[in-house]
Amino acid sequence: MKRWRWPSLTLFTVTLFLLWLLLNDTLAPGQVVLGLVLTIVVALSTAAMRPLRSRPHHLLAAVRLFFIVLFDIARSNIVVAGVILGSVKRRSNSGFMKIPIDLRDPYGLATLACIITATPGTVWAGLSPDGHALTIHVLDLQDEETWIRTIKHRYERPLMEIFE
Amino acid sequence: MTVTEIPLWADLAASLLLVAGGILTLIGSAGLLRLPDLFARMHGPTMGNTLGLGCVLLASIVVASALAHRFVFQELIIALFVVATSPVTSILLMRAGIYRRRGDGGTDGKVVAPLDGNA
Question: Is residue B53 a part of any domain in this protein?
């Protein structure tokens, strides 16, 4: 364990605190105090499990990315529904593909993994040991160029802006 | 609290959303039957986890807000937790599938297309 220090006011602690108030659906003084105490205790006791400090900036870019992802998830739901209900030929188009990747921040990569996997039609299948190539599995592997462009432009670039 | 207290518009919107979410999840689950292999099958249930769940949560938000006469959005937390956790199991399943295929002596550890059965 590192030496004890007062938890800094990070995005993590603020989020935890807001989450507590939201879950209890209240702004009552008692709950605010309880939330504060719990937040501090949780932030302190999990500090050892979060050895890497993340310094996300450009919150505006994060908000924009959120809506891009929301839109993409909705759109690819329709696409995947089309594939599932489609012909046998359409259904057996899946395969792995590699994408060169420049994002290095672990939190950024974790977010990218969540985005890619949460979007129907693509699943994260691993990162090469040197971290330069990402493998994903795509349900509708028609042209790889479009997928590479989508992931690099729509997700990777904003993530690099946010985390690096 | 009786059902009649919900205004008609909220009732209609929530019903439509529930039906849409149900259909999306059903199609996604049908993907388990209709898609050819493990890796392709992983994409189907994701639909129920994302837009299917989203529709159900939106319906819940509409009904709860109409009942409470204010905007209730706690359901968003559910979406946050599902989107943050379900990919972890998906990725683990994916990795397990890849390692099993390697065990078959298929591709000596390299993750390369094409998959079995595909061109």
Answer: yes
Q: Tell me, what's the ipTM?
A: 0.77
pLDDT at B83 over 90: no
For the entire predicted model, the pTM comes to 0.80
Say whether A84 and B40 touch across the interface (CB within 8 A): no
Over the stretch B23-47, which tens digit does the pLDDT of each residue have? Answer: 999 999 998 888 888 888 888 888 8
Q: How far is B5 from chain A (nearest CA, A)?
A: 22
Range of the domain at B67: 9-104
| Total count of domains within chain B | 1
Looking at the complex, does the CB of residue A18 fall below 8 Å from at least one CB of chain B?
no
Backbone torsions φ then ψ of A134, nearest 5 degrees: -105, 135
Q: How far is CA A110 from the centre of its chain?
A: 6
Do residues B83 and A118 make contact, with C-beta atoms less than 8 angstroms apart?
A: yes
- Rounded CA-CA distance A65/B119 in Å is 35
CB contact, 8 Å: A11 with chain B?
Answer: no
Among B40, B25, B97, B118, which residue's Cα sits nearest to residue A83? B40
> Exposed e or buried b for every residue in A143-163, given b needs 16+ CB within 10 A?
eeeebbebbbebbbebbbbbb
The amino acid that residue A103 corresponds to is L
Best residue in A123, A141, A143 for a mutation probing chain B (most B CBs within 10 Å): A123
Beta bridge partners of A135: A98, A126
With respect to residue B116, please indicate whether it lies within any of the assigned structural domains: no
In a domain, B22, yes or no: yes
Backbone angles phi, psi at B44, to 5 degrees: -65, -60
pLDDT tens, residue by residue, A19-74: 888 888 878 888 889 988 998 888 888 877 776 777 777 788 888 999 999 999 99
